[in-house]
Amino acid sequence: MGIQIDDLSFAPVVLAPMSGVTDLPFRRLVKRLGAGLVVSEMIASQSMIRQTKESLKLSSSTPEEFPMAVQLAGHEPEVMAEAAKLNVDRGAAIIDINFGCPVKKIVNKLAGSAMMREPLLAGRIMAAVVKAVDLPVTMKMRLGWDEDCLNAPELARIAHDCGVRLLTVHGRTRCQLYNGRADWQAVRATVEATDLPVLVNGDIGSLSDIDLALARSGAAGVMIGRGAQGRPWFLRQAIAWMTERRIEPDPSLVEQCAIALEHYEALLEHHGTVMGNRIARKHLAWYATGLAGANEFRRRVNRAEQPGEVRALVKALYDDAVTAAEAGDLTEGLAA
Ligand SMILES: Cc1cc2nc3c(=O)[nH]c(=O)nc-3n(C[C@H](O)[C@H](O)[C@H](O)COP(=O)(O)O)c2cc1C
């Protein structure tokens, strides 16, 4: 079980692009812990061709992440093609086109999911990008604009004819934004409309979600976003389950602490101390989910400016969790 595109072969478990989340440190961590493919945050093609500092940073990668996809958004075929070309020698193994972003600021610029209402232009963009680069081109979209326009299958056929190699469908419409539940069954129409491998995406947060999403959609694999927040090891667990029906346990609390700290240090290094510290707050809050004292931890981390203070808070959080788990084991042992 795997996805093969030319000489690229990867497990069918892909980290979703998430602006503000899937930066280089997070992608590298997820990849190291086990993932088929990781995707960059969305990059505006206009900024990419101007090679702004921000777009160069967003598209930077390390060899450890390989294969890594750079995701581009925009509405001008030539600009998208040019932006794609710029990534060929910068470490990208795949160029992904964003036709799924529902955010008003993006949609108003006729990009992201707005392109689902412009299938002809969407086709011109895909054809231009495919022609511009030797790398495989993939595309990510939603079910459609709204309930009355579920045209992902039509976009899939156009993508196929343009030479796109893999599709991801987030099982919501643009108008749903992130409300309701992703409809995995509705992704099946796209799977059946094309021979291209399709990844099902949306609300996959457990091994049973994976089974249901794959069974309902008939997709070749899964793309996981929020399910990996605070759990960068979840994609490895997904791979073990999908390929071997093996339940891979969560890392121990001591290992989780080391992972959270490794992530924190990488964020400081990549973004600098001030920005890195700020960006780390949401990740550390996600890591704390389910641990005793999480609320107090978040409150304190959100105020901490010094890395030394943050490290100490993280260590204390996990030390307390280990102590609580050991006390729980002891109590259970006495009760047995
Ligand atoms: C904070 C955040 C940022 C996102 N940024 C992007 C993006 O840059 N490009 C994109 O195609 N999708 C983006 N998405 C959508 C995700 O890739 C994914 O389709 C969506 O979250 C549903 O999957 P999930 O339930 O597994 O998170 C973003 C989602 C979130 C929550």
SSE map:
Elements: E1 3-5, E2 8-10, E3 13-15, H1 24-34, E4 37-44, H2 45-49, H3 53-58, E5 68-73, H4 77-86, E6 94-99, H5 104-107, H6 119-132, E7 137-144, H7 152-162, E8 166-173, H8 184-193, E9 198-201, H9 207-217, E10 221-224, H10 234-244, H11 253-271, H12 273-288, H13 294-301, H14 307-335
Parallel strand pairs: 3-4, 3-10, 4-5, 5-6, 6-7, 7-8, 8-9, 9-10
Antiparallel strand pairs: 1-2
Helix pairs in contact: 1-11, 4-6, 6-7, 7-8, 8-9, 11-12, 11-14, 12-13, 13-14
This protein binds flavin mononucleotide.
What does this protein look like?
This protein is of the alpha/beta class and 336 residues long. The protein has 2 domains: 3-244, Aldolase class I (TIM Barrel, Alpha-Beta Barrel); 253-335, Orthogonal Bundle (Non-ribosomal Peptide Synthetase Peptidyl Carrier Protein, Chain A). 49% of the residues lie in helices and 16% in strands. It contains 14 helices and 10 strands. It has helices at 24-34, 45-49, 53-58, 77-86, 104-107, 119-132, 152-162, 184-193, 207-217, 234-244, 253-271, 273-288, 294-301, 307-335, and strands spanning 3-5, 8-10, 13-15, 37-44, 68-73, 94-99, 137-144, 166-173, 198-201, 221-224. The chain has an 8-stranded parallel beta barrel, surrounded by 7 helices. The longest helix is centred in the last third of the chain and has 29 residues, at 307-335. The protein is globular. It binds flavin mononucleotide. Flavin mononucleotide (FMN) binds next to strand 4.
